[in-house]
Structure formats: C-alpha cells, structure tokens
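Q: What does the assembled structure look like for these inputs?
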Amino acid sequence: MNKQRKVLLLGGSGFIGKQLAFALANRGWQVTVPSRRPHRNRSLLVHPNIRLLEANITDETRLRELCEGQQMVVNLVGILHERRKGDFRRYHVDFIKAVVEACCETGIKRLLHVSALGADQATGSSLYLRSKGEGENLLHTFGQRGLQVTSFQPSVVFGKEDDFINRFAGILKLFFGYFPLACADSKLAPVYVGDLVERMVNAVDDRESHAKRYTVCGPEVFTLRQILELIIDSLQLPVRVMPLGKGLSRMQALILQNLPGKLFTMDNYRSLQTDNVCPDGDHCETSLRQYLHGLPAMFGNKRNYDSFRKDYPQPGNPEDHL
Ligand SMILES: NC(=O)c1ccc[n+]([C@@H]2O[C@H](COP(=O)([O-])OP(=O)(O)OC[C@H]3O[C@@H](n4cnc5c(N)ncnc54)[C@H](OP(=O)(O)O)[C@@H]3O)[C@@H](O)[C@H]2O)c1
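A:
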C-alpha cells in the first residue's frame, strides 16, 4: 500500500496557496497549512486531505516542528509592501534562511518556492523585486546541499480570489467619469492561478525541474491601462481610464502609501517601471480577456456574480479547472 506523502504549505492560506493546497490534496498529498488566522481560512477544511492549524511560522522552533515528518515544503509567503521597515528582508530573505535550515535539519529533500517575475537581487527595480531575488538566490545556493529546489517567477496572477482584478474592480465600481491611473503603460502578462498551480504540481516529481527557475506568464501581454479597460468593459462600468504621467504617478504613490491599506506605494511604482513579461515563448494558456468576458456570462449578470462571490468565497468553483 502506498504511504501518503506529506507537504507543508507555508503561505497555503493565501490566494495561490489555497488553490495549490486543493490541487496537491486532490493528488493524494496530505497537506498541512499553517496560518496566523485559521478561522478565516476554514474553506480549506472541506478537503479531507488538508489540515489547517494556527501557527507562527516565523518562530524558528515552531517552523522546525512543522517540518518534522514532511516530504516536501512549498513556500508562498510574500508581501507586496512593508508594514514595518525591513519587512521585505524579514519575509523574503531571513524567513527563507529559516525555511532552508528547518528543511536541512529535518531531512526534507524537496522545496518549491514562488518568487516573482523580475526578481533580481542586483538589478530588480524595487526593494520587493531585489528582496525576492535575494531570497531565491539563497534557496538555489542551499539547493546544492541535497535540498532539491524549484522556483517559479509568475507575472501578476489572476483568479476568483485574486487581489489584483478584484481590487481594481472594487475601486472602479466607486468611480464615475474618469479614473486616474498611475503607470498606465506598464506591461504585464497576467497568468491564471490554475495554470501556475498546474505547473507547480507537475514539477513536484520532475527531476528535470531541480535547481530550475521558471518564469510563468499568461498568453497575452497587456498594458495596465488595457487591463482596466477590460474590467470596465466586462462589468459595464460608467468610467474611463485617465493615464497619469510619471510625475503624477509618483505623486499618487507618495500619497497613497501614507493612507491606510497602502493601495499603491513608491515601491510598487518602482516595480512597475520594469515590464512584467516573459522573454521566451512557453506561455500558459488561459486568457485574461476570455476569463473576464466569461464571468458575467457564467453568472448571468453582474449582480449574480457579486452575490456568487459573497456566498461562495471558497476555491473549487466552476472557473477553477484544476
Ligand atoms: N498574486 C500575485 O499576483 C503574485 C505575483 C507574483 C508573485 N507572487 C508571489 O506568490 C506568493 C503568494 O502570493 P499570494 O497572492 O497567494 O499571497 P497572499 O494571498 O497575500 O498570501 C500570502 C500568504 O503568506 C502568509 N503570510 C503573509 N505574511 C505573513 C507573515 N507576516 N507571517 C506569516 N505568514 C504570512 C499569509 O498567511 P496568513 O495570513 O494566513 O497567516 C498568506 O497565506 C507570494 O510570495 C507573492 O510574492 C504573487
């Protein structure tokens, strides 16, 4: 009889992590998801192979305990802006050191990691991208010591519970007339969460993927402005995009980063100065354009779609073809 394999999903309660948790659980893995706020993530418990528990994973002793008995760790912990100065280093670099040490001490041989497209310790255009790059370099250095590492660098990721399309859709619904958009010409290749997760799951037992860093992009390249126009079109909102020049974009970032919620920061502005697209041709299939156009049709109209999102906020819905 096959023994059930065990995986620890750090950041498994997040947007990408939840989808990955279900995908691995469906393939027979016993998945452990630690979270600071497990009560918010109970939707994970519908799957019998998923265990959700409260844990402070930044406590190194607790992290080591969680690693005991696991065959694989996946790290998805990441932040887009700092609450406290030094958070990027804490979560993207120091935390990774702790994860690698815990894996080595507990005999774990396989580690998957989600980085970000454009992550580069030396040339990343923002602190976010440089810290992501430094953490990823660290992982791959340790990878030479018997821990088999594969990392993924996705462009912006979309799906039902994303913080990208949903956030813009939520803000755009509040506007009439013109919406002032910073960095409107920045290029992105949005990738569907199901496609990213599929690539990650396929890599698990693929020896070819050891020590590799994969860029992951969707099939289309859009400017940020085009993406907002697609959202507006799909939700039939009475608003038009007004692109801001460099100076006003920076000013918007400087103002918003000091407001609660930090909708947009100077570091986000700097990240958007680099095109977030993949250089080569191996792109994922799912089209953002089709996804956005398909949603209102799938749920009848916008009001039905909003109520669907409210009533069924868990993954495993019709559009997630994992
Ligand atoms: N979404 C995208 O478009 C995108 C694009 C490129 C790269 N990425 C990368 O992909 C990874 C996953 O992204 P996501 O969108 O799924 O993120 P997310 O929804 O924000 O989830 C982040 C996860 O990290 C955990 N976490 C955050 N801060 C933590 C802290 N201080 N201590 C402990 N745990 C913490 C959260 O757990 P709890 O709150 O439950 O404790 C949560 O499970 C990140 O590394 C991100 O940088 C994402």
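The CA atoms of residues 11 and 77 lie 5 Å apart.
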